[in-house]
Amino acid sequence: MQRVVVETAGWIRTHVGADAVEVSLTYEPTDPYAVTVRVHADTGTTTWTFARDLLADGLRSMVPLGEGQVRVQATSVLTEISRTDDAGTTTVLRLPWWNTREFVRLSQAVVARGEEEVDVDSWLAAMTGSEG
Question: Which helix (H) or strand (E) is 52 found in, with range?
């Protein structure tokens, strides 16, 4: 199965200020329930990993969805992903809605929603460095 990567530009707001950033959205079929968002800024790269279903559902919601550190919601043209760290500081990432939607569509073309499967033995071998 094929990995899905969508590159886009976005805007990030932290307690320090706001800035334009480059963003990589990645879906790995070997971890079918998750998506990874890498935010490339002048200060470095930040990586967020969270549920693919949360991103997909958030694209259809005008109110924030999510019960943990990550929340997702849509506006007419933007996808807003917010993450609150353990210290209570919230970072907000805004991405073009159509790029985020295309990423979700491509990931679901590789592994349809509800058809996710995990090879626990391979995952465990990769985590422990042993061969299966």
Answer: helix 52-58
CA distance 38 to 42: 13
What does each C-alpha distance from 83 to 46, 47, 89 come to in angstroms? 11, 11, 8
What is the predicted pLDDT for the residue at 118?
65
Q: What pTM was computed for the model?
A: 0.84
Residues 6+ apart with CB under 8 A from 25: 4, 5, 6, 7, 8, 35, 36, 37, 95, 99, 100, 103
Tell me the two tokens of residue 59. 């694209």
> Does the residue 109 lie in any domain?
yes
Whether 132 maps to a domain, the answer reads no
- Of 95, 123, 106, nearest in space to 22 by CA: 95
